[in-house]
Design brief:
By secondary structure, this protein is mainly alpha-helical. 51% of the residues lie in helices and 8% in strands. It has a three-stranded antiparallel β-sheet, with no helix packed on it. The protein is elongated, with a radius of gyration of 40 Å.
Length: 420
């Protein structure tokens, strides 16, 4: 052991990868290969030579007392921020800068922090048999959830007490919705004015907003062909954007989301797909209007009553078919058992929905009819109102779908009879 302890070692640092090696003092002047990168290094004599410490044998270990531990130096762990090499520095060197021996990165020695002590749980006082199971461990309520609970957690949002009234009429002016409402209102105003310039003058060439007299109205009528293409494309862009926003609001609201996240992208082709979907649903709803017209004619009702029945049938069938298509996942044959059963089990919800949407739609139509002689004024006034109506209609329809799912689908899946 004395012969081993008398040997002396010389530190060698690789000039390329900065790996630290140790060679015997008798090998000074020789060339060694770095075990990491293979670079040849020359062993140079250091200014101070560190004696080697021989490994202790199993019978030479002793217990450390408190006095020896108090006199031993205290060290702080330093982690290189670049290569994550673990280094140790004295505690009194906190705040000084050291160089990493591996990558030569300079870092600062942090302040030493004592690790938090972990307290053993209190033992349960009692008498136990040798074969008795250990006492049950009570998990506190503040314990973090398991990963499975995180993956299958329920949505944060819950169905409001009045889903068809709470936050409905302030929805278009919320933070994430207000900007879309502004864009849609401006688009409706612009496309409406262009469409009236192209086609409206033929309906009312002597309206007051065209400048007093039919001369200017006739001139605009002659130049209507020049505005036709512009009116078509602006109207297509506007109503495609409105359809995309409506579908996004309905889907997100029906899934229980209070804040709309999946807004339509900037790809106008996706908007056009949503518009075609709504037009297809409207075409299916027109079948109900045909049936209502045939029924009123068979009963001998007046022509005005027949037209009112047609419009009312289409208005009532559109949201039913739309929710059925979304719930069933197909628009070709929009048939959904939960949506159909909701007409009988949740009639009050449907009545509230039809009443709110029908009243506001009637008000908008009356304003448009009464202001027919001032088309541009009415267009500028109706554009923001129609944009708000589209957003409110979508929110109401989505909330209605959410209510139907919450009240009917869980009971239907379990096999029990759904009740209102």
């Amino acid at each position: 052991m004395l012969a081993e302890s008398s040997e002396q070692y010389v530190p060698v640092v690789c000039p390329k990868c900065r790996a630290r090696m140790h060679a015997l003092a008798v090998h000074v002047g020789r060339t060694v290969a770095c075990p990491d990168c293979g670079t040849r290094c020359t062993v140079t004599a250091p200014t101070t030579v560190t004696p080697a410490v021989a490994p202790a044998r199993p019978d030479e270990y002793s217990l450390r007392n408190d006095e020896s531990s108090a006199e031993s130096p205290s060290w702080t762990l330093v982690l290189c921020p670049k290569c994550h090499t673990r280094m140790h520095a004295r505690r009194e060197h906190a705040g000084q800068r050291i160089r990493c021996p591996e990558c030569a990165t300079i870092t600062t020695v942090p302040e030493h922090r004592e690790p938090a002590r972990r307290h053993a749980p209190d033992l349960v006082v009692g008498e136990y048999d040798m074969g008795a199971p250990p006492p049950a461990v009570v998990i506190p309520l503040s314990a973090p959830p398991l990963p499975a609970a995180i993956e299958h957690r329920v949505p944060v949002s819950s169905l409001p007490r009045h889903p068809l009234l709470s936050g409905i009429y302030t929805f278009p002016w919320r933070g994430e919705v207000a900007s879309r409402w502004c864009v849609l209102a401006l688009a409706l105003a612009g496309s409406g004015c262009v469409a009236w310039l192209a086609f409206g003058s033929q309906l009312s060439p002597n309206n007051a907003d065209l400048g007093g007299g039919g001369g200017l109205g006739a001139a605009v009528a002659v130049s209507g062909g020049a505005f036709g293409a512009t009116a078509f494309f602006t109207s297509l862009w506007t109503w495609s954007f409105a359809a995309a926003c409506l579908m996004a609001i309905v889907r997100e609201s029906a899934s229980g989301a209070d804040e709309i996240v999946e807004w339509p992208t900037l790809d106008w082709r996706d908007w056009l797909y949503n518009l075609l979907f709504l037009l297809y649903i409207a075409a299916l709803a027109s079948v109900a209007s045909v049936g209502a017209g045939w029924l009123t004619n068979a009963l001998g009702a007046a022509a005005g009553v027949s037209w009112v029945a047609r419009v009312a049938a289409s208005f009532a069938a559109f949201p039913f078919l739309m929710l059925s298509a979304l719930e069933s996942g197909t628009a070709l044959f929009p048939v959904s058992a939960p949506i159909f059963m909701s007409l009988f089990r949740l009639p009050l919800a449907w009545i509230v929905f039809y009443f709110q949407t029908g009243v506001w739609l009637t008000i908008l139509i009356m304003i448009a009819v009464l202001g027919f002689h001032w088309p541009y004024t009415v267009i500028l006034l109706l554009a923001p109102a129609v944009a708000a109506y589209i957003f409110i209609y979508a929110r109401l329809l989505g909330r209605l779908g959410w209510l139907i799912v919450e009240r009917l689908e869980p009971q239907t899946e379990s096999g029990a009879d759904a009740t209102s």
